[in-house]
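Each field is listed here:
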Amino acid sequence: MATRKPSIDQDLIRDLANILNDTDLTEIEIEQDDLRVRVSRAGTPQMVHAPVAQAPAPAAQPAAAQQSEAPVAASKPSANAVTAPMVGTVYMSPAPGAKPFVEVGQSVKEGQTILIIEAMKTMNQIPAPRSGKVVDILVGDADPVEFGEPMIVIE
């Protein structure tokens, strides 16, 4: 029985490489069904077809989706929203129990750290893309975020 070699989705790899360049990450990995893709600055792209344990995921995803959709529906995303440059977990302060980086009503300067996203055990400081006033915070501390998800509105 001959095994069929999977075709490589070059557009996906290019998109992941662009995310690496845009975010200064050194490595990014995604999983979809039985496909795992890792792109790293230090090595070559890897594609692995392997069974992925997904039994717990379906039970966890609907609850997580309901929680993450509620704040977005309550607060319409603005054109001035700062979006997540990567998938990860948001932290609103530099350490547990510390004062948050920003609060609603606070003025921020371009380049000022407004939150941290933990991705692949790396803490990535997310800077304000422009100076302005924080008018809305759309994520909470330790919330998961997806690439492109609105997090903070600065006007």
